[in-house]
Amino acid sequence: MLLQIRWHGHACFEITNKLTIVTDPHDGSSIGIQKPMVEGDIILVSHDHYDHNSVKTVKKDDSVVVKDVGKRVVKGVPIEGILSYHDEVHGKKRGENIIFKFTIDDITFCHLGDLGHEPDEEILKKIGEVDVLFIPVGGTFTLDADGAWRTMQNIKPGITVPMHYKIPGLSLPISDLDPFLAKNRFKVLYVGNEIDIEKEELPKEREIWVFTL
3-class SS at 28? Predict the structure, then answer.
């Protein structure tokens, strides 16, 4: 069965094969965009802010919600939550943030949540090798274009997916995608709202995948 990635806006993605993982769900109306129309078997919540923690929007009876650090296996999926911060002063402004690393069909994903600082060596070591990186680029509350670019260069994922940037309707005061793409030296693919991938077809050279709603 093919693995599918679909974007629901902001930092909310749906990664599906036999199971569906949903990252950082929002309720749509609170931030001015359409709500996610998906139910997650596993729901990952990087931090407890309203635009990332609307579990009820995507929950079903047997959903498992993961919102803390540490390693575990949930419904056969190895998941690691890595402590980081929502700002550049160890959480004093906006609290903690959890980076989630998980592997499905031999493809390793890393979702940085609302990371507000460039990861240090300890965090980078825990992240390790990544096939697909979801990275915030909009600034104000998270990494900006410069910080996101340097972070991407340090992690060296095969595929980088920018997130948490200004799109039509979004009511948050963050930057659009242009400043991040202006720094780019890699191939950019505009993949639409969803894309199917498999390990054997991952690109040999690094790419940036831009999703749309």
Answer: coil
CB count, 10 Å around CB of 145? 22
Residue-number span of the structural domain to which 88 is assigned: 3-211
- Residues 98-116, buried b or exposed e (16+ Cβ, 10 A)? bbbbbebeebbbbbbbbbb
Q: Tens digit of pLDDT for each residue in 91-145?
A: 677 778 999 999 999 999 999 999 999 999 999 999 999 999 999 999 888 999 9
Report the number of distinct structural domains present in the chain: 1
Nearest alpha carbon to residue 77 among 48, 47, 40: 40
H helix intervals, the chain: 55-58, 121-127, 145-155, 178-181
Q: Which residue is it, tokens 């505009």?
A: 190
Read off the tokens for 162: 């920018």
How many Å separate Cα 56 from the centre of its chain?
19
The conformation of residue 174, written as its DSSP 8-state character, comes to: -
What six digits make up the tokens of 117?
A: 């600082």
Angle (nearest 5°) at CA 212 between 208 and 213: 155
CATH (domain of 197): 3.60.15.10
pLDDT tens sequence across 165-210 = 999 999 999 999 999 999 888 999 999 999 999 999 999 999 999 9
CB 187 within 8 A of CB 205: yes
Closest by CA position to 45, among listed 28, 26, 62: 26
